[in-house]
Design goal:
By secondary structure, the protein is mainly α. The chain has helices at 63-70, 74-115, 120-127, 131-134, 136-153, 179-187, 191-199, 205-217, 225-228, 234-247, and strands spanning 2-5, 10-13, 19-26, 43-49, 59-61.
């Protein structure tokens, strides 16, 4: 890489060149951090890489200085900028498609839960309104679900660490001795078993709420809407995550926990 020698105001090459990854360009930073030139139209955003390829804090160089710092040509830098821009656009496109897929899945589930059919026109007939007017309702429900998920994300969740005892097949702690082993038990129980243990005091309130949320959101269920609401208690969320991990159930689209 290059460093500035303040006394002589010149660049001195250091033999062990720093590796960088081009992240793109920005017009928000208009000063080169290498030569100090001000009022540029924009700068190249570079992320220094360690020996394992992990990125450090980004830095901002003019195009020529970016080439000097990384040992590239200006042509290389411009090609890297284009590649980074193309990759960002592709990532944004894929995210838009993924978001649309999440909404379509949520909308289908909403129609089935509320009207017993995935056909919006059939549902509209049952609701006594146009399909266009009814279509606003699942959209609003989806936005509310996202807002709830965002609110929950703002709460630092507790985490249940996988129990090392389970590394050996068939090994686990006795009931009530280990949070992760208890989650393993819950992941293998039926709803009736969990309700019985809850009523007899063998399953805690947090465990019961976590189990019921996982149960309600793991499939389309017509009588479980109260349990679909994402819990806000960090302890319950931690149990939800552990049960899903043991059961191999992914967090449902639009109803993450």
């Amino acid at each position: 890489m290059y460093v500035i020698v303040e006394e002589r105001k010149e660049l001195v090459e250091v033999l062990d060149m720093q590796a960088y990854r081009i992240k793109g360009t920005t017009a928000d930073v208009t000063a080169c951090e290498l030569c100090g030139k001000q009022e540029l139209n924009g700068t190249v955003v570079l992320a220094p890489l360690d020996v394992d390829g992990a990125e450090g804090d980004v830095c901002y160089f003019g195009t020529s200085c970016a080439a000097k710092a990384a040992g590239w040509t200006v042509k290389d830098v411009k090609a890297g900028i284009k590649a980074a821009t193309d990759a960002k656009r592709e990532a944004e496109r894929m995210e838009r498609e993924a978001e649309d897929a999440r909404y379509q899945e949520f909308k289908t589930r909403w129609y089935v839960e509320n009207y017993g059919t995935a056909d919006p026109h059939e549902a509209a007939k049952m609701a006594g309104m146009s399909a266009a007017r009814l279509s606003d309702m699942p959209l609003q429900a989806y936005k509310e679900a996202q807002k709830t998920a965002d609110d929950v994300a703002d709460v630092a969740p507790a985490v249940i660490t996988p129990c090392p005892v389970q590394a050996q097949p068939g090994n686990y702690h006795f009931e009530g001795r280990c949070a992760d082993c208890d989650a393993l038990y819950l992941s293998k129980m039926s709803r009736d078993d969990v309700e019985y243990r809850y009523q007899t005091g063998r399953v805690s309130q947090d465990q019961f709420e976590a189990y019921m949320h996982v149960w309600a959101t793991s499939a389309i269920r017509h009588s479980a809407r109260e349990w679909e609401v994402v819990p806000t208690d960090p302890e319950v969320l931690a149990i939800v995550a552990a049960i899903r991990r043991h059961a191999g159930i992914p967090a449902p689209m639009g109803l993450t926990a």
